[in-house]
Amino acid sequence: MTGLPTTRAACLAPPQASEPTWLIENLWSAQAVGIIGGEPKCGKSFLALDLAVSVASGTPCLRRFPTRQSGTVLLFAAEDASHIVRRRLEGIADAAGVDFQSLDVHVITVPTLRLDRRDDQQALHETVARMQPKLLVLDPFVRLHAIDENVAGEVAPLLAYLRTLQRNHQTAVVLVHHARKGAAHERGGQALRGSSELHAWGDSNLYLRRNGHNLYLTIEHRAAPGTDRLQLALVDRSLALALEVIDRQTAEDQSQPSPQQRIEQILAASTTPVTQRHLRQAARMRACHVAEALAQLIANGRVDRSADGYRLNQ
Q1: Is 60 exceeded by the pLDDT of residue 221?
Q2: What is the pTM of this model?
Q3: How far is residue 212 from each of residues 96, 97, 154, 209, 216, measured CA to CA in Å?
Q4: Which domains does the chain have, with CATH numbers?
Q5: Are the C-beta atoms of 101 and 138 separated by less than 8 Å?
């Protein structure tokens, strides 16, 4: 044997300055393969379609993440009827301010697509080669095969096939996949159903998780920093539903009582007048903020002031 060829690290080809880093900035890397994962009914398909609309139109994904490369999108939605797919895309396009009729999203209309069958692999390969999509969306993984997802030796060849599509045609690949039942407290990738090959395969992975009524997105990249627990909401639009990012600071501000409300709560719990100093200590507020809140409450007739302190009007 002659061994394997090697080269000094400094002799490796440097990255080209013109090579794009992102397909969608901070959300999906350029030409990345990866997973959109999560429990049932947590918006995985909505998120995948939002990526599709953004890449096809060049508009920000979730109205937050700038799209750096745009082009044709190829989509296979195995679980949803065509009219449902259309309605969802129309709603997202409406939220993005995009003309749906000109949207460059192409839907594969065969009833089944099996990535564990050579004929179907070849058909998908030829379609990608012909259309040269910037993004390929396959939703969900469980409907694309008849293998045992828990066996790495069966999962790996399917993922290798998708990686080959990505490399040969410079297309990003989004694979929608379910999380395991009872895995709500595990990390997103560890909660995925089946072999750990799925989590390891992704260059960019997006994980959705519900906590009560709140929906959170975790973003992971192989070669870039991620984001943890970005809050989303499914917003009712005129045509359909669309996911949107909830500003965390705004959400926290809305969930906390205002200074006036905090002062009222303290006064309501007291049977005797309360001094301004006691209010400041109990509310843990600056003296100037307590004074402003009291002035507003007095002006609105909610609070009376006496020599002994402040009392809430009943």
Answers
A1: yes
A2: 0.75
A3: 28, 31, 35, 10, 11
A4: 20-247 (3.40.50.300), 257-312 (1.10.10.10)
A5: no
